[in-house]
Specification:
Layout: E1 7-11, H1 15-27, E2 38-43, H2 45-58, E3 64-68, H3 85-91, E4 93-97, E5 100-106, E6 111-116, E7 119-124, E8 130-136, E9 139-153, H4 161-164, E10 176-186, E11 193-196, E12 201-205, E13 213-217, E14 220-222, E15 225-232, E16 238-242, H5 248-255
Parallel strand pairs: 1-2, 2-3, 3-16
Antiparallel strand pairs: 4-16, 5-6, 5-15, 7-9, 7-13, 8-9, 8-12, 9-10, 10-11, 12-15, 13-14
């Protein structure tokens, strides 16, 4: 990155993030986000995802450098506030992330579109088991998946909810998506599938009135859905910045060798 890079500081409203950002505010001049070359986001993964979704909503793709002063920091850089921040940002590695696009149709016929950087999940709303028909590229691959639900994760999100549901970790740049069942009841032994990110994945909710299901794209929830269509966006792109030696790819590799 060139000299004189313009940075904007975006801070979570938590006490931990606000207190940690005090020295950053005094360390150098800052500009407004609209004028910045790079956004420095201080907080945890949840706040970073919020900021990225705001950028998606506005059609903006400015590089984002996260500083971990929150609860979970898998997508963030370390919180060494003594290191020269502009130098860290200039030397950071870029990672391009393409989100998923979800179009959910409710029982009332309303269609809602949201994007997901980590995953789209379908979840039962009541004690009744969800029953889902799984369609990939227009072909029914599973007549009925019964369980708590199912999720479709990106490589960036494969170490989050997907990993907790025993789904596979996907390396960045693999061009793959993880389709992972959540507490499957039938077929009991099905553990999911790895799909190319060119696939169009659809779910039809069986007995949707008796067995209501919600669809969640990261932080956005649509309740009482009857049909959900998901594809990797070809129009949207985000850029994350990571310190050398601590890239998102390296973290994904490290997750696979933890014991």
């Amino acid at each position: 990155m060139s000299e004189g890079i313009k940075l904007a500081l975006v801070v979570s409203d938590t006490d931990k993030a606000q207190n940690g950002a005090e020295c950053l505010r005094r360390s150098q001049p800052w500009v407004e986000p609209a004028e910045a070359d790079v956004l420095v986001v201080v907080g945890g993964d949840g706040f970073l995802l919020y900021c990225l979704h705001e950028m998606l909503h506005r059609g903006v793709n400015k590089p984002v450098y996260g500083l971990h002063l929150g609860t979970v920091g898998f997508l963030m850089n370390g919180s060494d506030l003594d290191a020269p921040l502009e130098k860290r940002v200039r030397n950071a590695h870029r990672v391009s992330v393409r989100p998923l696009e979800m179009v959910a149709t409710t029982q009332g016929g309303e269609q809602l579109c949201y994007h997901a950087i980590n995953e789209v999940s379908l979840l039962r709303e009541t004690r009744q088991t969800a029953k889902l028909e799984v369609i990939i590229n227009g072909r029914v691959r599973m007549d009925e998946l019964a369980g708590d639900g199912v999720l479709l994760a990106t490589p960036a999100g494969s170490t989050a909810y997907n990993l907790s549901a025993n789904g596979p970790i996907l390396p960045l740049g693999s061009g793959m998506l993880a389709l992972t069942p959540i507490s499957p009841f039938r077929p009991r032994r099905w553990r999911g599938a790895i799909l190319p990110d060119s696939a169009v994945v659809e779910f039809r909710v069986r007995e949707s009135l008796k067995r209501p299901v919600s669809a969640v794209a990261d932080q956005k929830e649509v309740r009482d859905v009857k049909h959900v269509r998901i594809r990797a966006s070809r129009e949207k792109e985000l850029t994350l910045l990571f310190d050398p030696g601590a890239s998102l790819e390296e973290r994904i590799f490290s997750e696979q060798f933890q014991v």
